[in-house]
Amino acid sequence: MTATILDGRAVAARVKEEVASAVAEMPSTPGLATVLVGDDPASHSYVRGKRNDAAEVGIRSVHHELDSSISQDELHTLIDRLNADDEVDGILVQLPLPGDLDGEAAVERIDPRKDVDGLHPFNLGRLVLDKPGLRPCTPSGVMRILDHYGISVTGKRAVVIGRSFLVGRPLALMLSARGADATVTIAHSRTTDLAGLARSADILVAAVGVPQMVTADFVAPGATVIDVGINRVDGRLVGDVAYEEVAEVAGAITPVPGGVGPMTRAMLLVNTLAAARS
Predict the structure, then answer these.
(1) Neighbours of 38 (CB within 10 A)
(2) Residue 255, preceding peptide bond in cis (omega within 30° of 0)
(3) pLDDT, tens digit, for every residue of 55-102?
């Protein structure tokens, strides 16, 4: 069996088209503020990509680049100013922050209505309550991929390996929410017989940050495998899934790169549009 490739780049392109069409019909241009602290090359690359995406769909972005020596209070002062700026609909503070700066405190300082990463406790709380709100981008991207390819989760057994508040826990909530209706198990490094549990899944999500941890013996024949991991090994990007061997067992699989990653950025645009409309 050779798995169907779930092409995140193609789905992201469709999402961008939808956002661009909606932005073109708005009376004013949505504004996205990006905040980058320090000189980490990867963070610079991520933010540059997000700003390019915004420009591509007609969203105006304003960039704030800060020295790593900035204090927590100075960072919060900037966030307060952006919160009060009516021309800023969304605020993105690129994480992780360098040094002793507290990323969680910075996120909590953002007005929840402008929290386009969907990580503010207010928005995570609304997710827990199954109420509308801005959702974390990566889990939203996973849900959009499944929807795009017509992979129903209703009544299915889903196993999410990884319990972070960035991906694992919010994705489990989205999969089990009313209207999605999957039966979800969250697994982690201390789960007994992890491979056996994973094999019970119709939909298996790997979000642990361990290169190629999920091998063929984790996967039931025909299962859908979503690889959220992005790891650099010997100069190349690999996921948390051993792609070549798992693709021979799974029914569908996301590649790395080109799977979930592009969708994370695309859903940031969706959130920015939603924030501008609210």
Answers:
(1) 18
(2) no
(3) 999 999 999 999 999 999 999 999 999 999 999 999 999 999 999 999
Q: How many CA atoms lie within 13 A of 170 on its CB side?
A: 25
Q: Is 114 a catalytic residue?
A: no
Domain 136-261 has CATH 3.40.50.720: yes
Distance CA 15, CA 236 (A): 27
Active site residue 117: yes
* C-alpha closest to that of 254 among 112, 149, 103, 102: 149
β-bridge partners, 129: none
Active-site position among 16, 53, 89, 94 = 94
- Return d(Cα 270, Cα 274) in angstroms, integer: 6
Is 212 a known active-site residue?
Answer: no
Out of 53, 89, 115, 117, the active site residue is 117
- Per-residue three-class SS string for 62-82: EEEEECCCCCHHHHHHHHHHH
Helices 137-148 and 260-277: crossing angle, nearest 10°?
110
Residue spans of the domains in the chain: they are 27-111, 136-261
In whole angstroms, what is the distance from residue 118 CA to residue 150 CA? 25
In CATH terms, the fold of domain 27-111 is Rossmann fold (3.40.50)
**Per-block average pLDDT, block size 10, for the chain (278 residues)?**
93 98 97 96 92 97 96 98 98 96 97 98 97 97 98 98 96 97 95 98 97 97 97 91 97 97 97 97
| 115: CB partners within 8 A, 6+ apart | 90, 91, 107, 122, 123, 134, 275
27-111 and 136-261: same fold? Answer: yes
